């Protein structure tokens, strides 16, 4: 196996901070972005590229973009169609994308097997409420992928014990303004009114780090 770690990235705050963090123990990190046909992907990829150019870390490889279209399955759901994106005050349950981590990890795992990369890191926080973010899910999937690919593969969750506010404090010296946490951004500007923006706004407020994000509208009352 090579001396590198694959890192699932989205252009979001958590995965970008994690990516840079992992350059310290790892010899090399390979960012992997899986395109599934979600409405914010083009914006995410632009922000991810801008972040990586600004960081310019010598141990971060070029982004590997993998295609795994899911629009035939997700159909008219909000994350695929852009219609009915959950708003600022809607509960976390409305943000679930069924099978999200399973889909990302299966595609990335095959890439790792073919490129002799023995570990995949993803930026799951301790506050993630969904069933595909539990320790039991990752332990079972790690075993299944390793067995199915006949290849020892580790699934790493370095942010699993952290909140988003703690991640912000960890990455406060990085260009966090270039990361994207919005379902309806335009030209890199956060909408300010979707549920993802609320999570970001609240986390910056809790962290004590000034929020450098450009928002198109003030948060709803």
Features:
8 helices; 221 residues; alpha/beta
Q: Strand-residue fraction?
A: 5-15%
Tally of extended strands? 5
What Rg, in angstroms, do the CA atoms define? 17 Å
Percent helix? 25-40%
Taking strands numbered 1, 2, ... along the chain, how are they ordered across the largest sheet? 3-2-1-4-5
N- and C-termini, Cα separation: 52 Å
Q: Overall pLDDT, averaged?
A: 92
H/E order of the elements? Answer: EHEHEHHHEHEHH
Main beta sheet, described? Answer: 5 strands, parallel
Task: Briefly note the structural class of the backbone.
Answer: alpha/beta
Per DSSP, the total helix count is 8
Rough outline:
globular
Low-confidence stretches: none
Your description of this structure?
By secondary structure, the protein is α/β, with parallel strands linked by helices. It is built from eight helices and five strands; from the N terminus they run βαβαβαααβαβαα. The longest helix has 16 residues, at 100-115. The termini are far apart.
Task: Provide a concise account of the structure shown.
With 221 residues, the protein is an alpha/beta fold. The protein has helices at 13-21, 41-55, 71-74, 78-81, 100-115, 135-149, 164-170, 195-207; strands spanning 4-8, 28-35, 64-67, 119-121, 154-156.
Q: Any chance you could write out the topology, listing elements then pairs?
A:
Blueprint: E1 4-8, H1 13-21, E2 28-35, H2 41-55, E3 64-67, H3 71-74, H4 78-81, H5 100-115, E4 119-121, H6 135-149, E5 154-156, H7 164-170, H8 195-207
Parallel strand pairs: 1-2, 1-4, 2-3, 4-5
Helix pairs in contact: 1-7, 7-8
């Amino acid at each position: 196996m090579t001396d590198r770690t694959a890192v699932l990235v989205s252009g979001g705050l958590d995965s970008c901070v994690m990516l840079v963090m992992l350059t310290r123990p790892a010899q090399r990190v390979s960012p992997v972005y899986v395109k599934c046909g979600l409405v914010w992907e083009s914006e995410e990829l632009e922000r991810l590229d801008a972040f990586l150019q600004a960081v310019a870390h010598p141990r971060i490889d070029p982004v590997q973009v993998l295609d795994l279209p899911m629009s035939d399955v997700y159909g008219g759901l909000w994350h695929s169609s852009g219609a009915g994106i959950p708003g600022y005050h809607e509960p976390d349950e409305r943000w679930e994308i069924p099978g999200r981590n399973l889909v990302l990890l299966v595609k990335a795992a095959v890439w790792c097997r073919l490129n002799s990369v023995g570990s995949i890191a993803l930026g799951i926080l301790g506050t993630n409420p969904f069933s595909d973010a539990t320790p039991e899910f990752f332990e079972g999937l790690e075993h299944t992928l390793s067995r199915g690919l006949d290849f020892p593969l580790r699934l790493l969750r370095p942010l699993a014990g952290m909140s988003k506010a703690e991640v912000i404090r960890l990455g406060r010296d990085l260009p966090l303004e270039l990361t994207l946490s919005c379902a309806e951004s335009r030209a890199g500007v956060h909408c300010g009114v979707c549920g993802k923006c609320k999570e970001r706004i609240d986390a910056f407020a809790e962290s004590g780090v000034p929020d450098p994000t450009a928002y198109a509208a003030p948060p709803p009352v």
